[in-house]
From TrEMBL:
PANTHER family listed in its UniProt record: CBS DOMAIN-CONTAINING PROTEIN CBSX2, CHLOROPLASTIC, TRANSCRIPTIONAL REPRESSOR CCPN
Keyword Protein transport among UniProt keywords: no
InterPro entries: CBS_dom, CBS_dom_sf, CBS_domain-containing, DeoR_HTH, HTH_11, UCP026546_HTH-CBS, WH-like_DNA-bd_sf, WH_DNA-bd_sf
Keywords on record: CBS domain, Lactose metabolism, Repeat, Transcription, Transcription regulation
Domain called CBS: residue spans: 80-136, 145-205
Protein name: Helix-turn-helix transcriptional regulator
Pfam family, one: HTH_11
Tree of life domain: Bacteria
Length: 205
């Protein structure tokens, strides 16, 4: 995050005189406390400053790169996951192709009547399914999908860094996010390379 000139001045004051109250900072800059409030909030939320009641603000000692790394390491899957695109294992290969095209995704998750994950269908799976002599309008995706235990999943409270490493290690496009409900793993979301890229862009901005 790039700081503006006033925020840079605030950091300099806190480095030299911290802990220091917001009123004292405003006094040194010849500004009102209300004027500085947004800047102090940004610096605190970004990790540059910390604040203690009746004590004031003090510098955390973190450089911009450290702040970004710290924030990234604390992001959870549930903070950035997308809605899953679901089909049943009885869905035909043709219907799955149409679904993938309309939803503009690279992976579909096949579930049973309890919403439990039973399979994953990728673009590559569908391509293989269309190369045979079978009738794709009648052939179910259960014939071509990847089944457990060959499916890699993650949980909402997993660190995003864990999910990112799984995508890299397994060389896959997405991970289904599952939650344990009544003894079964129910699909509640997905983590994709796009989700992770968006996080990096937002942090940089």
């Amino acid at each position: 995050m790039e700081l503006n000139a006033r925020q840079e001045k605030i950091l300099k004051i806190v480095k030299q005189h911290g802990p220091i109250t917001g009123s004292k900072i405003a006094e040194q800059l010849s500004l009102t406390r209300a004027t500085l409030r947004p800047d102090l909030a940004i610096l605190t939320m970004s990790g540059y400053l910390d604040a203690r009641p009746r004590v004031g603000y003090f510098y955390t000692g973190k450089e911009p790169e450290e702040v970004m790394t710290s924030r990234l390491r604390n992001i959870l899957v549930r903070d950035v996951q997308s809605l899953p695109i679901l089909i049943t294992q009885d869905t035909s290969i043709y219907e799955a192709i149409v679904k993938m095209f309309l939803e503009d995704v690279g992976t579909l998750y096949a579930i049973d009547e309890k919403r439990q994950l039973v399979g994953v269908v990728s673009r590559k799976d569908l391509l293989k399914g269309t190369m045979g002599k079978s009738d794709i309008e009648k052939t179910p995706v259960s014939i071509i999908m990847t089944r457990k235990p060959h499916i890699t999943t993650c949980y909402p409270n997993d660190l995003l860094m864990y999910a990112a490493n799984q995508l890299i290690d397994k060389q896959i496009d997405s991970l289904p996010v599952v939650e344990l409900k009544d003894g079964i793993e129910v699909v509640t979301g997905r983590i994709t390379k796009t989700n992770i890229t968006r996080v990096f862009v937002n942090l940089m901005e």
